[in-house]
Amino acid sequence: MTERSQILSETAEARREAERLLSGLVEARLQSEARLAELSRTDILKQITGKSSLDTAIDSTERMIRALDRVLGDIRTSLSPEEQAVLDDALRDD
């Protein structure tokens, strides 16, 4: 694997990992909100700022995914067919 292919693969893996992180954060927010409701409590940070710490983490992760998508989209046009195949394989979350 060329150095360029390795970088593409690592960038694609970072994007896949960010998607997994986002999924976990969304699930944690749902569980947290359910638990707070069960206890008849409110999230104090959300009450003060309008966002919980999980909301902030989700927003940040979504921004990171969009940035990675832009980078991958920008470089995709300059890739050889073999490099595009490496990238496509790396983006697949099997």
Give a description of the structure.
With 94 residues, the protein is an all-alpha fold. 82% of the residues lie in helices and 0% in strands. The protein is built from 4 helices and no strands. It has helices at residues 3-38, 44-49, 53-76, 81-91. Helix 1 (3-38) runs antiparallel to helix 3 (53-76) and helix 1 (3-38) runs parallel beside helix 4 (81-91). It is elongated and about 55 Å long. The two termini are 21 Å apart.
Instruction: Count the beta strands.
Output: 0
Our estimate of the beta-strand percent is under 5%
Kindly provide the radius of gyration, computed on alpha-carbon positions and rounded to a whole number of angstroms: 18 Å
Low-confidence runs (pLDDT<50, min 5 residues)?
none
The main β sheet shows up as: none
Overall 3D geometry?
elongated
State the separation between the terminal residues, measured CA to CA.
21 Å
SSE sequence, one letter per element: HHHH
Number of helices: 4
By helix and strand content, what is the structural category? mainly alpha
Mean pLDDT: 90
Give the helix proportion (percent range). over 70%
